[in-house]
Structure formats: structure tokens, C-alpha cells
Amino acid sequence: MEAQAVKSNLVLILDYGSQYTHLITRRIRSLSVFSLCISGTSSLKSITDLNPSVIILSGGPHSVHAQDAPCFPDGFVEYVEKTGIFVLGICYGFQLIVQKLGGQVAIGEKQEYGRMTIEVVKDYGGLFKGKNIGDKQVVWMSHGDEAVKLPAGFEVVARSEQGGVAAVANPGRRFYGLQYHPEVTHSPEGMELLRHFLFDICDVSAGWKMEDVMEEEIKVIKGMVGPDDHVICALSGGVDSTVAATLVHKAIGDRLHCIFVDNGLLRYKEQERVMGTFERDLHLPVTCVDASVQFLSELKGVTDPEKKRKIIGKEFISIFDAFAHDLEKKLGTKPSYLVQGTLYPDVIESCPPPGSGRTHSHTIKSHHNVGGLPKDMKLKLIEPLKLLFKDEVRELGRILDVPVAFLKRHPFPGPGLAVRIPGDVTQGNALEILRQVDEIFIQAIKEGGIYDEIWQAFAVFLPIKTTGVQGDQRTHSNAVALRAVTSQDGMTADWYYF
């Protein structure tokens, strides 16, 4: 999805480290407007190259007074004023505007956290359209500093019940600021404000559709992959890699070569189920490799979870490497590209928030995608989903005719059941028990009509034994745990209330 293709309507979010930043991106996309999130300390060129029509400065945990507090680049204010770009600062982003445009921010006498009532005090700049002076609403606050003096031309349009500045506007310079977070559900009228700001104040039009994303991506893939180039893709049996492969297959046909590896750590009847979908429904060219013996022999006796992930990754790469070499012999030419189902949350997780002092994110998924491919493979990456969230990928899959039941499948981790058996996965019949328990759990949820309400449900084989009664005998045997979580886009999660 080349940024230039959607530039006239792009809403760009500069991320200053708020835990809610990704929500701003999601909320704006739900209004059919394309939005992207980049680091708040990105260069001016990175911003100008994207040519946005609106820029939102996110919240963050820092104080604008702190040494090395993250900030937009030099020349930013001149650039947005010269090009007529609208700027909305949220929380830290609002304080940044105040401080950089000549106002003053100080440590708040009364720091505001959590739900709070604000009141509209002035009809200026149209920020609270349809609201009268004196109208109140509940919002979510999260700040210790406050604006004590506004830059010239700015007016306070809403105050908190404690008298703090809650919203400001300077329509002449196209700068607006909110001290609260409109993007969270705890600000019930926040979506209405974002909608009004984008469509009525900024005159953005709602024209971003998943069909456009599909057509744009197909165009990009065709432009990238030469007429004689071949592409390989590792299918995990999950939604992301399947949708990515289906999209590439639509663009280049059978010059795509897929591999599905059964590592012995899959769910109940997983191999036959997913291969059926790949071949019967999607007509994807897939080679199935059963390497369960190879994986399980390497994992024997290994209990450290990180070590297990590394072994699985290494084994997978050696099989993938062999597949690529066999393909080269068969085709008489080396494959040039590798398809990966990287999603936007993966990209965000890989980019640390500014001011964190980190050059990359914490080790969240050391197994993620195909990290550490052999250097001599020199494959160029095709990541057609890297700007999409999980629910958007499912929508794209529906357009590509991927079966709905497959798209609705709960996510399954790359290392499979290895991460659901703490300890040695090869011990006793833990894998077999877990497969059967998991199948019973999932089928029960489906029969109960609640499968689609749950983001991910799964069983865990616990590394403990417990007492029970079977028949008339007291027994001492293994225990399993059943887990179910809810999530909208895989960025935040909560437990499912059965």
C-alpha cells in the first residue's frame, strides 16, 4: 500500500509512547479514513514524504520539561502552517503544541487521572460542534502536567471540573488540542469528536475501503515481482499467512510456491484440515512436509521456553532452506521473494516508543515470522499485510473468498503446543492429551454459540499433578487449564467472562 496512493486523505499519527496510540489509528480507520502511525521523533522528511492532510500528536508518559523529552522535528511547525495541515495534539501532544508555540506547561497542582467531567466554556474553532456552552461530558484523563499559559491566538474551549484546561483551539493556524484521550472507550463521546474533527473541521473524506487495499497491493506485488521471478511462502495454517499467500497468488498465480510444515506440535487433525482448505477452497500450490519426528527429537528433554522457541525456529529454517534448494533445482532458477504475513501490530511492537531509551521492543515474539533466514538465501520480502490490523486482515480475506469459518479461527502461536506445555513437550503423552482436551474445549465453545465472541481459547497442560476420583478410585494425575481471552485487534486483551 504505497503511501502516495492515499496521500490526499492520510491522517498521520506521531507516536510519543502512549499505551493508547494504536487505538487512535484503529478509531480513524473505523471511520473509513486511512491512518498511519510513525515515531514522534521521525525526521521531517519522513513526514513530508507521506504528505498527510491531518497530523495527530499522541499522548505519552513523558513531561515536556524533561531533558531529552521526545519532540517533533525542527521545521515541523513551519511545514504544517505552510501546507495548511491540521494538527490535533492529545494529552502529551497537546502540551507539546503549547510549549513549542510559546505557551507554558507546568506540573499540575491537581493531577488528573481516570474518568473526569469536562464542560464546554466557549464556542470557538467548532471543536465541540452541536454542544452549547455549559454542556458537560465524561472523558478519560491521564496527565500530571497542565497548560498554564496558552500561545497567542489559542482559546480554551473546555475545562475540567477542577478548572484545568481540557481543550483548546486556534482555527486560524489549524492547531487544536485535547488534554484528555478521545480514542478510549472511557471517553463515551470521543469518537463523535474525532469524526467531527476529521470530516467537518479538516474536510477529510471517508473513502478508504478494503477493496482499494486489495487492488493497490496486487498492483504493488505485480510491479515488484518480475515476470520470471518465483516467490516462496511458509504457511502456518493461520489467518495471516493464508490471506497473504492468497493475495500474492491472485497477483502472480502459480509462480508462488507454498510450504506447510507439520512440526508435531499442531492441534488435533490440523494437517488434514488446513491442507483441505489450501487445496480444495483456495487452490494454493502447497507442499506439505511432515517433520514431526525431526522437531520432537530436537525438543526432547528441553524445558526452557525461550530455548524451545529457538529450536523450533532453527528446525523450521533448515526445512525451509531445503525446500528452497529443491525448488531451485526443479525450476532451474533461485526463488527471489519470500511472503510473510507480518501485521501492523508486529510492526508497532518492533518499534519502541520515543524516549524509552530502547532501540527495539522487548522480546515479545522471538519466534515471530521467519526470523534469521540463512544469509545465502538473500530473499527479498513481500509483506502485503504490514499496514493492517487483524480484523482488517479478516475483512480482506473475505473479499478474497477465504472461507469464513477459516477466517474466524482463533490465532495459534508459531511454536504451537510447545508454548502450551510448560516443560518437556515430549514427556509421556502430554501432546496427545492436550490435543484432545483442546478439541473438546473448542467444540464445546462452538456448540455453545460463543466461539466468535472469544479472540483466543486454548488449553494448557500444567506441569503439576493433582488428586481426583475416577470410578471408585482416588487418582493422582495431570491437570489442564482452560483459557479464553477477548480482544479487538490483538493489541490489548481481557479474560472472557463465561
Automatic annotation (TrEMBL):
Q: Which GO terms describe its cellular component?
A: cytosol
Key words of the record: ATP-binding, Glutamine amidotransferase, GMP biosynthesis, Ligase, Nucleotide-binding, Purine biosynthesis
GO molecular function terms attached to this record: ATP binding; GMP synthase activity
Query: Where in this chain does the record put each GMPS ATP-PPase domain?
Result: 208-409
ATP-binding as UniProt keyword: yes
Q: According to the lineage, what is the superkingdom?
A: Eukaryota
Per the record, the pathway is: Purine metabolism; GMP biosynthesis; GMP from XMP (L-Gln route): step 1/1
Pfam family of the protein (one): tRNA_Me_trans
EC numbers for this chain: 6.3.5.2
- Residues that bind ATP: 236-242
What stretch or stretches form a coiled coil here?
none
Q: Which PANTHER family match?
A: GMP SYNTHASE [GLUTAMINE-HYDROLYZING], GMP SYNTHASE-RELATED
Protein name per its UniProtKB record? GMP synthase (glutamine-hydrolyzing)
Annotated organism of origin:
Lactuca virosa
